[in-house]
Amino acid sequence: MGGLTRREIIQLSGGGAAAAVVGSGLLTNWWGLDANQPMDPKTDGETVVGSICELCFWKCGINVHVKGGRVTKVEGNPKHPLSRGRLCPRGVGGPGLLYDPDRLKTPLIRVSERGTQRFREATWDEALDLIAKRFKEIAATHGPESIAMFQHGFGATWFVHLMKAFGTPNLAAPSYAQCKGPRTAAFNLTTGSHLGSPESVDIANSRCLTFLGYHLGENMHNTQVQDFSTALKNGGQLVVVDPRFSIAASKARHWLPIKPGTDIALLLAWINVIIEEKLYDRDFVAKYGHGFDELKKHVADKTPEWAWTQTTIPAAKIRETARFIAGFKPASLVHPGRHVTWYGDDTQRLRAVAILNGLLGNWGRKGGFILPTNIALEKVPTPTYPKPKRAVADRPRGKVIPLASAPLAAGVRDASIPGTADYDIKAWLVYGTNLPLSLPEPQKTREALQKLEFVVAIDVLPAEIVGWADVVLPESTYLERWDDLYNPTYEQPFVALRRPAVAPMYASKPGWWIAAELGKRLGLGAYFPWKSARQYVERRAKLSGLDFEALVRDGVIVGKRQPVTVEEGVALTFDTPSKKFEFYSDDLKKAGLDPLPVYTPHPEPPEGSYRLLFGRAPQHSFGRTANNRLLAETYAENEVWINADVCRSLGIKDKQRVVLVNQDQVKSLPVRVKATERIRNDCVYMVHGFGRREKKLRQAYGKGASDSELVTRSVQDPIMGGTGMNVNFVRIERA
Amino acid sequence: MAKRYAMAMDTRLCVGCTACVLACKTENNVPDGYTRDWVEEVVSGTFPTLQLELRSNRCQHCDNAPCVSACPTGASYIGPGGVVLVNADKCTGCKACIASCPYNARFVHPKGHVDKCTFCTHRTAKGKQPACVTVCPTSALVFGDRNDPDSSISQLLRSRRYKRANVEAGTKPNMFFLI
Questions:
Q1: The dihedral of CA A374, A376, A380, A382: what is its sign?
Q2: What are the CA-CA distances from residue A114 to residues A31, A392, A442, B56 (Å)?
Q3: What's B157's domain CATH number?
């Protein structure tokens, strides 16, 4: 067999002499840590703590093994419906975060201008007092609305609670307008359901899966990867539309290497064939469809021959795949994807995806979209939140974005540049999101950060955002803290618990404690009527009728499986204006927007430039795992994928280092070339989260290149305000 | 009949995520910069007619293990279930086994002895699966007794096509790649 040898692989993955893991779990009896951990009889004296992973947003159930006060390994919790005993590499890599020698260790207060990590160490009292004083001053002058919060991660719940109590509506998360927001808007418009997370899709039972730019297997949504494998094992078919021969594409019956930016043309042509050839689910359309005739008229001229001129996919292939996909209905699922902010018309593209699924009649069907429920939880009573006096400041003055259902993070950032929005944002509280990498147009993020009066960062690592904060609070990792209960909608409803496996290292503190201490100092103590998060979750579990001891013992309480499909007796209802599945959207029409998805060609890269695309590696989430030395053992540095022919014509060799220069003359750090047949010749591709410039991230510093730096432009979605980011072009220069 | 442990790896299911590699590292405390298993990615063809094969690979626990014959001190030996193991106390780190292994499955541990995949004998002795098998999100790895006709691995090897690496070396490897 050919291929790389083990030694080459090790070399490739940068597995040289990595820094030794330092620090040890404290053996002190820290409050909140259980004294009597259950022992796993099959392990050698290790205690096993059931908890929730936080290396990404999926929140798998984990069993954390602890020996001598140290976490030795993390395994999947077999009882947890999302992990089923298995984990992705990131989940396994948890100890690499816990024992990262670069962790923030004490509270810090800035001693120089913003933009560098020059701080003095401070006590918790000093840091918290300073934040409370500044927040009160800014609120007194500009109103509490002028303080915005940016957040990502499950631990954010404590701070969302705090800032709602404080009275600001500006609670923004890049996970909406920089990620799945267009999908939320499109499915809300079409079906009245926003799909949630985990997405309500039945991958395992699907007989045909269609992915558009969805690189499952490289994005390791653990449960979905398991279900994907099950579907393939059971003979499920796969159609992948991607400019890149992704891992999923390599398993597909049909790979359509589409020209980037033309997906709507392909979708309309598929819809055209399915309608013209009467391949759609006629019962579903007759019973539940709204505006089918308008749709039919709309796509009448969107033939495969027309789509070929846009997508470069041959008409015969478009016809063949349309018939193929329709042949498996209703257990034929066109996956809605997750990171879908590509070109600024993303809600319309996702509308086309939803419409195609409607034609396949897979709504509420086995192997299609399912209708899951959750285990409802009671709230621990706290005072009512004050009503913010002003609306969210997340768009230019006077601009209407009709269907934004959450604050737009990039818009709140822009409102921090004085004179942009209805009122100015004056201060930020940033929790767990590295804004210089997670927002497009980093030049605006820098400008905002220079203009703000006060910036607080709560983080585990000295990420780039920390270098812009006036006060830095070191949070304990997910392996050292309690958090709220987790009860998503899922086909197998459950409630899961996060609890500490070891005591917090250094002077780090858990988020719940930080939020409560800040609350006290801001005069909001009444909102935190609990002594500890343990007491809080115990009270919440008991109020909700859950067996708290079982939750602690198993990490999860699994409810009764509920019917989730028509086959299991669920009646279909649609929470839309017509109470039907809306092929045609009256709401969009009323808002002056296209009621049916319209294809618009997007600007193409000029001669000598290539469209910059980005995605995931299985080992990494966002920018938050690049410094993890354990994960770096198998993926330490990203590379830029360039078509092999393009490399030949440019005289560039595989593994050579190049610099990418975008249309605004912004240059990347040197990055290794992956000269490959696996990508089209009009685009290049990188894994997100690398090319770090913060020296305190000693593992990640200077490795690879950052797509975020090159995304100096974005196109805003007129429906919900998402930022399309695949609109930047790069030249390739020798490093 | 005596057990004959083997592993089947389904190249059609593997996504190359390397969870197997990292789970092995934490399970076996493999030192920084070293791994006992690894993922191979082989691309063939030209755009747009391409093929990609992913393989999670490790020591093949050969029936006819050249490393065991090459070892001058008896440190490399065949343990219960046919698993090829290294007795660190007897190993002098001479690297004869490393030179003899056609799979590049061995390395010198910073402590001086040779190290490699053990099929997680410490786990299988307690009725568990090897760490790489347990973690795999795609269930691409199947471990078991090839001498038990009812084991999952025996059934898979009867029903699926497979290939093995470097069979021409006469090693009789026990890693089976399902294709």
A1: positive
A2: 36, 26, 15, 46
A3: 3.30.70.20
DSSP A295: H
B134 to chain A: closest CA residue: A86
Of B19, B34, B105, the CB nearest to A87: B19
Q: Which of A350, A371, A392 is the last residue of a domain?
A: A371
pLDDT tens digit string along A30-53? 334 444 344 444 456 689 999 999
Q: Which of A16, A92, A225 is opposite residue B138, by nearest beta carbon?
A: A225
**Across the interface, do B47 and A85 touch by the CB < 8 Å criterion?**
no
- CATH number where A365 lies: 3.40.228.10
Give the per-residue SS3 of A634-657. CCCCCEEEEEHHHHHHHCCCCCCE
- By C-alpha distance, the chain B residue nearest A93 is B22
Measured between beta carbons, which residues in chain A are less than 8 angstroms from residue B51?
250
Structural domain total, chain A:
3
Domain end, chosen from A371, A397, A423, is at A371
Q: Which residues of B touch A224 (CB under 8 A)?
A: none
Nearest Cβ partner for B104 among A5, A229, A247: A5
Q: Is the dihedral of CA A285, A286, A288, A292 positive or negative?
A: positive
Domain limits for position A632: 610-734
Residue A523 has pLDDT above 80, yes or no: yes
Do residue A394 and residue A537 come from a single domain? yes
Residue position matching structure tokens 């409810």: A559
CA A685/CA A623 separation, integer angstroms: 16
Q: Which among B10, B105, B12 is positioned nearest to B59, based on CA atoms?
A: B105
- Pick from A46, A65, A87 the residue to mutate for testing the B interface (most B CBs within 10 Å): A87
Query: Whole-number mean pLDDT of chain A?
Result: 93
| Residue A35 within any structural domain of the chain | no
Contact A653, A675 (CB under 8 A): yes
pLDDT at A309 over 60: yes
A342 and A406 housed in the same domain: no
A1 → chain B, closest CA residue: B165
Question: How far apart, in whole angstroms, are the C-alpha atoms of residue A538 and residue A551?
Answer: 9
- With a cut of 50, say whether residue A17 has pLDDT above it: no
A266 and A353 housed in the same domain: yes
ipTM score for this prediction: 0.97
pLDDT at A5: 45
The whole-angstrom distance between B110's CA and the closest CA on chain A is 11
The answer to whether residue B129 neighbours chain A at the CB level (below 8 Å) is no
> Any idea what DSSP says for residue A146?
G
The answer to the question of residue A188 being in a domain is no
**Is B42 in Cβ contact with A2 (below 8 Å)?**
yes
In this structure, are A327 and A421 located in the same domain?
no
A36: closest CA among A46, A47, A44, A21?
A: A47
Contact criterion met (CB below 8 Å) for A421 and A393: yes
Q: Tell me whether B59 touches chain A (CB under 8 Å).
A: no
Instruction: Please state the rounded mean pLDDT for residues A468-481.
Output: 98
Query: How far is B83 from B60, CA to CA, in rounded Å?
Result: 9
pLDDT computed for residue A117 by the predictor: 86
Its domain, for residue B71, covers 5-178
DSSP A487-530: ---BSS-EEE----SSPPPTT-B-HHHHHHHHHHHTT-GGG---
